[in-house]
Please model this.
Amino acid sequence: MSRRQLLCGTAAALPLLQLPGFAAPPTALDLSVDLFRQPDSLRVFLGDAEDAAHTGKRSGDSWSAPGVEVAYTLREDKGTLILHAPGTPVRRLHLRWNNRLSNEILVLGDAWERSYGDLAWLPLQAERSLPWYCLLHQANSTVGMGVATRASAFAFWQVDAAGISLWLDVRNGGNGVLLKDRSLTLATVVTVRSDSDESAYETTRKLCRRMVAASSAGKPGRKTSSAPLFGSNDWYYAYGQNTAEGILRDADLIRELSPAGSPRPFSVIDDGYQDKARFPDLQKLAAEIRKRDVNPGIWVRPMRASSSTKQSLLLPASRYGQHRERAGEIAFDPTIPEARRAVLDVFREAMAWGYDLIKHDFSTYELLGQWGNEMGPSPTVDGWSFQDRGKTNAEIIGELYRDIRTTVGETRIVIGCNTVGHLSAGIFDGSRTGDDVSGRNWERTRRMGVNTLGFRLPQNGIFFATDADCVPITSDIPWSFTEQWLRAVAESGSILLISPQPGAIGAEQKRAIRAAFSQCAANRQPSIPADWIHTRTPESWKAGSNQQSYTWLSPDGASPFGV
Model:
């Protein structure tokens, strides 16, 4: 099969997708996509705070601009980009393939870190940033393109009626990276196409596998052969007002409701345990949880520095840009060895206490100064840098993730929250793939939870185990919605953690939780979204020939206050 066929198929196989060099039937719609050729143009953006764009001049597989050489080599049905810029700060690369595309195509991308209820198949939007990967769907055919996981650049795609762009952000902080004499492999471009009768969901899974196989790691995410993680997390009923007694009550509950002979469930302590009056002895608490035949887990925020930390170890407040109110949220600069040790010491402390699962949070926000839904095409603002300017943001983050895994070792579970999934694939066991749900307002769970469950589920067991967030079981959320959310998460085969509010767990709730935990432990064929092409919150799900429908909206519709 040719490289061109690998991406787009043949005119016979995909009658509505037009290939370069083939005559289209008069009624055919056109999708001329061929990334296995040199781009039609390549621009390089140099400097620091101000972009200076230079159009590259091509010679074979190489492109040159002032002080910069870029190679785009095509081998084994993938394209690899290598940057050499010995004396020039480089900010971005823009590759462009000119192709005429049908306006009837639907497009899906991923998210920089967590998603925020915003993932969807949408018509062409030239300005839309599509982080990491992109899928195009028309009629019964789907093609996908992405960069291999654990890239050395933040990458996003753009698609418009005249073609496809790939942008590679190689900045250090918000300034150009200074590679000196180092040649850096930035990214590897891969593509897939749907086979006959293959759904868009299955093609997305295939693209995820291809991105992992083409990465430097070349292996799937961790824990892919074990049963999904299940248990409890206190956040959505306690919201930081948790207690040691409450954690043990949760551990007793999930042990009671877990099926006999199943893997041990987890009881995860969330933020709030820093209060010594409520948590006098975290090591003893871990031992008490374990006595209940439950694995202890704990939430940490490793990048956060105390107010007494030396300024020389901190990231500059300028990374927050115009959000001056965030300047007080100080964080370590991991390119400084002493600061990096302080970050890793947070994990060492959790291990010394005896916790088997460590969930770490806030690192992308604290490293780059923005939440994922603020990033758009730029994961950080201009005009600042890490102390070590010789590495890209993606390299710095990827190295930190690998150091975390090395520090924690192979036997403990590591879950990232507010982490960059594409850079943590194959390193962390799990990833919180969406923004917070709610134990107080169902509409937030519908918008955030259901969206990330459906649209990032293709990554489950390939990048890592996906976590669409907890199932809050509280008196503020109608049980009719909670029960559906509990069932949907359990049947998806992803991580299931409940937040059980005292007083909200009766006999009916216990029966439903027991069934959900049994579903997790049995590791049956997972349910997948059947109608995700048409909605941001899939209601129709299927597992093999079994179909399940959910009702996420109340009869009166969504609450306008569910933000």
In short: The longest strand covers residues 183-193. DSSP finds 13 helices and 27 strands in the chain.
